[in-house]
Design goal:
6-stranded parallel beta sheet; elongated; Rossmann fold; 29% helix; 184 residues; alpha/beta
Length: 184
């Protein structure tokens, strides 16, 4: 079971990665839907016919993931956090929407940019517990997030309702990780 790092009292427990050198950055995974990307922004762009046809299963609308926008403050947070973390996107794509897989890649390229091959840092999985890293930021403990090996920060919980607040928490967690890995 993952350690919930949303609460400051839990930030001192980590599973030590044996491959981390002092000069390495801890690995941070960020979920896309309703964490980095505003899912509702895609729904808001659907036609009335699409709204009716796909009611209750909007994630199956072809192309919906290409219509979405970033969560408020995410790009600033990403640019700040990439200095201290090795960042990857860990997202789940719906099985019944084949365009979702490529749309998520396009979304990263267009909304975040690809100057640093950011799109090559997209991992699509229904089993986030299989990822090896230090921290996962996700809006819900599903698809393996609840069993992620080290720590889970739940976006939208315990006062972590903005990327500014999440970034502040992740900076503190990074300091704890660095101290832990250095043996101090």
């Amino acid at each position: 079971m993952s350690r919930n790092l949303s609460s400051p009292k839990d930030r001192g427990f980590f599973i030590k990665r044996v491959d981390l050198k002092p000069e390495d950055k801890p690995i941070l995974y960020i979920d896309m839907d309703n964490t980095a990307i505003n899912f509702q922004s895609g729904i808001d762009k659907l036609t009335p016919a699409q709204m009716e046809e796909f009611e209750g299963r909007y994630d199956e609308v072809p192309g919906i993931f290409s219509k979405m926008e970033l969560m408020d403050g995410f790009l600033d947070a990403f640019n700040e956090l990439k200095i201290i973390y090795d960042i990857y996107f860990a997202s789940t794509a719906p099985w019944l929407n084949p365009s979702a897989w490529s749309d998520k890649l396009i979304c990263i390229k267009e909304l975040i940019g690809d100057e640093e091959n950011t799109s090559k840092r997209l991992i699509l999985t229904h089993n986030k517990q299989l990822l090896i890293g230090d921290v996962l930021v996700d809006d819900r403990p599903n698809n393996g997030a609840e069993n992620f090996g080290c720590g889970l920060v739940v976006f939208g919980s315990e006062g972590l309702t903005s990327w500014k607040l999440v970034t502040e928490r992740l900076i503190v967690i990074n300091q704890s990780l660095r101290q832990y890995y250095s043996g101090s």
